Amino acid sequence: MSLLEIENLSLDIGGTPILKDVDLSLGAGEVMGLVGESGSGKSITALSVMRLLPEDARVSGRISFGGIDILAASEDRMNALRGDDIGMVFQEPMTALNPLKTIGEQVAEGIRWHTRANRADADAQARRMLDRVGLPAQKFPLTRYPHELSGGQRQRVVIAIACALKPKLLIADEPTTAVDVVLQAQILELLRDLVNENRMGLLLISHDLAVVTEMADRITILRGGEVMEAGETATTLSAQLHPYTRQLAQASMHVPERRKRHPFSPLEGRMSPKETEGGVSGGTASTLPAAISPSEAHRPPLLTVQNIAKDYPGRRTSLLRKPAPVRAVDNVSFSLGEGHSVALVGRSGCGKSTLARMILALEEPTSGTIAFRGETITGRDQTSLRSARRDMQVVFQDPYGSFNPRRTVEWLVAEPLHLLDGKPGRAERRELVSQALHEVGLKPSDMQKYPHEFSGGQRQRISIARAIITRPKLVVADEPVSALDVSIRAQVLDLFAGLNDRLGVAYLFITHDLTVAKAITDEVMVMDEGRIVETGRTAEVLTHPRSEAARALVEAAPDLHRAIAKRMQEQG
């Protein structure tokens, strides 16, 4: 008998059909991949198994877990199952964690609830689990709070919570979306080990076909709440019998067409002596490519970052001893030319997002200067930063955390319009919002909805619409497509490329996805422990990495063709 069986599952919310006759089965020790576009019904299928559905949801069909009828089980029975026999890794780690509790308390909470262990034993078990997901005690004590961690580190805490009691079934909803490729490989290996050691069934929900191919024995592909195709993973993705399967595979490898590729900027890649000692530079002012014209070489950069460092107060361990500061960004220098597209890649927690916040003047550097359009923006007040903010916009890593949940999409997307010199009237404002939503694949009718009414991928599209509505000169994109399915990711990358071609918008892409860096950027900077250790043309650095940090990223990056070939070989 299968560990999990779903038969003819149909669901509607408020009269709107969401799922239609979904069939799925998962055995002990098996990995099932559940893939599809954003809004296809992947997450709601998982929530149906956990029975965490809205009050107005109407469900029919059958869900059986270990012989238990989930849809008929009492709430007390479900409370006993959730977190013990059934664990779940939710898509957005910040909203899944309690900001008022330490990470130790949150991992230990489920242990104490289900096993009645005392505090010391629960804390010890929590410590072991955090160590196993890559959060060692010397750097990440149990007393840390979620806001003190990066997005990838928070995701590891969520995985630790879900796996602490070695559940029979683990539902992982985009478990590696917010983590770098090296950590992704480690987490997938951890999940694989748990499956093998505990005969755990794993329902892996992901938009990354390469990850699913590497992990899953079988795959189920959803579209519009219906199963399009299901079968053995490698066979299904290799044959691509259904047109929708073909569409997903092609979108996962999509590279936008760009009318122009910018030559390497004369200032990009310039590094401080300290950085050059420990890393590799792919281009400096003394090694300009011949393709750069004199006018290009002498054009002033749009953004100049010079010797930027950022220290944070260390954690106090004694009343008598002042803690040593923690350096998050260490003496970084680079420039970004108008219309250029540069990727900043590196492992989770290496300082990428901290550097982005300083560029956006959301944090002051400890030392160094940042200039935008030739004007220094460090140390200036908010009023004098108004024009810079109009021409410099951002897409944050966590879309839901960047929205006011009490505001409609129209208000959220229109928020940057107050920076324009001439304030648009209501009709013009609605037209601008409608156009921005259309450009990211949403409907004008979505304007009156609230953030909670959208999937994670749809919320990221709203965030991108807000960033481009003022037609900025520079967009700092912090993991801009990490939460998007492959089809929407292809559309958004095309959008970024189109804006770059038509309007000359420059991009600083902060990403752990090397396929995104290859597809959309001219140059790449590799960051490790707060320093830029390698720079150069994207294709050259990612094809022939020279620094240890870059090599680790390239070797860990999933590849769909390679994963299919490996699976086919394993099957004989």
Describe this structure in words.
With 572 residues, the protein is of the alpha/beta class. It has two domains: 4-246, Rossmann fold; 273-315 and 327-562, Rossmann fold (3-Layer(aba) Sandwich). The protein contains 22 helices and 21 strands. Helix 7 (181-198) crosses helix 21 and helix 8 packs parallel to helix 22 (560-570). The longest helix has 18 residues, at 181-198. The radius of gyration is 24 Å and the shape is globular. Residues 263-296 have low confidence and may be disordered.
Name some characteristics of this structure.
seven-stranded mixed beta sheet; 2 domains; 22 helices; 572 residues; Rossmann fold; alpha/beta
List the helices and strands and how they pair.
Layout: E1 4-13, E2 16-26, E3 31-36, H1 42-50, E4 57-65, E5 68-69, H2 75-81, E6 86-89, H3 93-96, H4 103-115, H5 119-132, H6 151-163, E7 169-173, H7 181-198, E8 201-205, H8 209-215, E9 218-223, E10 226-232, H9 233-239, H10 243-252, H11 273-278, E11 280-281, H12 294-297, E12 303-312, E13 326-336, E14 341-346, H13 352-359, E15 367-372, E16 375-376, H14 386-391, E17 392-395, H15 409-414, H16 426-439, H17 456-468, E18 474-478, H18 486-503, E19 506-511, H19 514-520, E20 523-528, E21 531-537, H20 538-543, H21 548-556, H22 560-570
Helix pairs in contact: 4-5, 4-6, 5-6, 7-21, 8-22, 9-22, 10-18, 16-17
What's the helix count?
A: 22
CATH superfamily of the largest domain: P-loop containing nucleotide triphosphate hydrolases
> Quick one: how many beta strands?
21
Mean pLDDT: 86
Radius of gyration: 24 Å
Number of domains: 2
CATH fold-level topology of the largest domain: Rossmann fold
Strand content: 15-25%
> How would you write the strand order of the largest sheet?
11-21-20-14-19-18-17
Assign the structural class, choosing from mainly alpha, mainly beta, alpha/beta, alpha+beta, or little secondary structure.
Answer: alpha/beta
Distance between the termini: 26 Å
Gross CATH architecture of the largest domain: 3-Layer(aba) Sandwich
Which regions contain 5 or more consecutive residues with pLDDT less than 50? 263-296
Helix content: 25-40%
The CATH C-level name of the largest domain is Alpha Beta
Largest beta sheet, briefly?
7 strands, mixed
Shape: globular
